[in-house]
């Protein structure tokens, strides 16, 4: 089966490393990348499309165009925010008094709604003989493993994303039973998203984008659709929901 990959949020640090690996991988036939920003096409098999994923009508138009020619074996949604978004500064809440409705709305808009809308429409462009849809979640989105508190908005947006994936996986089993849905925790990666929080990270736990991209592909290549959905970390280990 030909390998066709869609990378969403293609301008980010992990996504850029992922695109490079996909372009260099001879087993991958086509790479379609999407983001609001222009992204260089660095191989003949890459095609970039500029669109705003916060606008569902643009996602729908893209999917309607693609489904006539492309069915993807891998769809990887790399979107997400932690401390900034569209010029807004977001401060992880240390106590309940720090919670803000405006900040909550921004976390959910990007971290939950964007991947949810892609999952909604992706059912029309996944390869029916076998496909994987991966979204970037986070370990702090685990409800059962939350023993530290804080980070209300970010935690809640990722926990909500996990629930979207859990729920969608039930529907996908009916509509596209060979599609695997994955919530992936990339760890702390040396990108702009994590820079304000890297000081407290042990050097061996601060990963390069290239390492994270390679781990992602290693651990999402051969997952069992019967066990979908998965909630795994950068090392392929299961995380408790």
Outline the structure in words.
The chain has a seven-stranded parallel sheet with strand order 3-2-1-4-7-8-11, with helices on both faces. It has 241 residues and is of the alpha/beta class. It has a single domain (3-233), classed as NAD(P)-binding Rossmann-like Domain (Rossmann fold, 3-Layer(aba) Sandwich). The protein contains five helices and eleven strands. Helix 2 packs parallel to helix 3 and helix 3 (101-122) runs parallel beside helix 4 (152-175).
What's the quick description here?
The protein has a single domain, classed as NAD(P)-binding Rossmann-like Domain (Rossmann fold). The protein has 5 helices and 11 strands, in the order E-H-E-E-H-E-E-E-H-E-H-E-E-E-H-E.
Mean pLDDT: 90
Order of helices and strands: EHEEHEEEHEHEEEHE
CATH architecture: 3-Layer(aba) Sandwich
Largest beta-sheet details:
7 strands, parallel
Number of domains: 1
InterPro entries: Fungal_SecMetab_SDRs (IPR051468), NAD(P)-bd_dom_sf (IPR036291), SDR_fam (IPR002347)
Protein name: SDR family NAD(P)-dependent oxidoreductase
Pfam families: adh_short (PF00106)
Which structural traits does this protein have?
241 residues, alpha/beta, Rossmann fold, 7-stranded parallel β-sheet, two-stranded antiparallel sheet, 5 helices, 11 strands, SDR family NAD(P)-dependent oxidoreductase
